[in-house]
Amino acid sequence: MSATPGTVTSLAAAVRARRISATAVVTASIQRLVDAADVNVLAEETFDEALEQARLIDKGELRQSPLLGVPTLIKDLEDLAGHPTRKGSLALRDVRPATSNGVVTNRLLQAGAVVVGKSTLPEFAIEGYTANLLTGITRNPWNLDLSPGGSSGGSGAALAAGLVGVATGTDGGGSVRIPSSLCGLVGLKPTNGAVGRWPAPDWMDYSTDGPMATSCVDLRLIFDVIRGPVGGDPTSPPAVLESQSIRREDRPLRIFAAERTSPFGPLGRGVERSFHEAVDAFSDLFNAPVTWLEAEGFFVAGDPDLDWYVVSSAEHVAALGREWVIEHMDEFHVATQEYLTTGLNVSIDVYLAARRRRYLYVRRLDELLIPNGVLLTPSVTIDGWLADGRMQADGEVHGLAPEIFATVLQNTTGNPAVSIPFGLLPSGLPFGLQVTAERYHDDRLLDIATLMESAFPWVRTAPGYEGLETVLDLV
């Protein structure tokens, strides 16, 4: 399955072939990060270290690495040795530097990536907008008044503005798919365990690392670099599992579509129109009918969206430490206070009941999707929100309501899901079609996204911005 070269593939190929120096590539990325200060994607810059690493590459090190010389941002939820992991929190402003690299950070570095900084996120990665009391407000390059989403919002905004080639994301409730949708990127939440996790994430069964990119060829490359098992992760398979690639003429898909999987009311008008257009296009492309499902009755016992909030908030309090949370509550962002206060009040019986219902949700999706089925839903359900998290200019800043997202089900069940750009919303932001597949069918989703990109190509960067490969005249 052929694909047009992307930013990452173009940059790495040019550096390997010595058509351009790693120093020139990294210097261009640094300048663009500085010039785009109004987007505010940097939680910390590592420019000097990046330039030194680029000089070593230009001397001949790591010549065949797949990400050779590619400027990269590490989400400030993940460890980068020698640098603090502040997680967007004033309460962690004086935390000691990490002594080792996180799993994904290490895999990217071994693949030749050059880290130019750490990207912004909402405090503790708990929100769908990227604003905190430590680094301020991160904005969407498609519309600076609006949010790039969260929690991987700094990474999403940086990619949409063409500031770097790679920017990492984590996804415990939609944190890759939400910014991918709002920033016009293709983003994958892998099957839980496909990217090995160590140490245990704050949301133990829900969180995973996942790639996002401006093109499917880049998404596949980055996923191949970061995927694979790690000791200590009980969900990590012993080897990389690859699904058989699909071909359009095989028509193997059973297509289901649902505006919502929880009964939270109608979609926003712009999202509803874009979603139905995307579903029709998907059905035409794969020449298969769509079975529509209603939110009422999708799950017969419990609600995964509501259970997700109970479980994740309780687990986050436990991960941070109950006494520490209470001691530092006054330093937290208002949305963090609301979320952690919920977690403090979750009883063990309520927590375990939500955990047990997870099996029912997994069974429902297994019965629906096996074999070779896909579920189409929106990634977000409204046209966007202000960069500081308010729904309108005269509103107040709080945590976003659960009905705004359609992404936590896949974290609860462990299924892979990809957000694919498809047109624009009335707000001027991109729309993301979410496609969910069977567990361990991550590669099938990448194939589907590639076919969608070929049939319905999207703009790779926000208006007024260009990818690094274009700026450096590599394409």
Q: Can you name the CATH architecture?
A: Alpha-Beta Complex
Biggest β-sheet description: 7 strands, mixed
For this structure, the CATH topology is Amidase signature (AS) enzymes
Task: Bin the helical content.
Answer: 25-40%
Strand order of the largest sheet: 10-8-14-15-13-11-12
Number of strands: 15
The number of domains: 1
Basic shape: globular
CATH class descriptor name: Alpha Beta
Beta-strand content:
5-15%
Structural class: alpha/beta
| Low-confidence parts | none
Average pLDDT over all residues: 95
The CATH homologous superfamily corresponds to Amidase signature (AS) domain
Kindly report how far apart the N and C termini lie.
20 Å
| Total helical segments | 15
- SSE sequence, one letter per element: HHEHEHEEEHEEHEEEHEHEHHHHEHEEHH
Radius of gyration: 21 Å
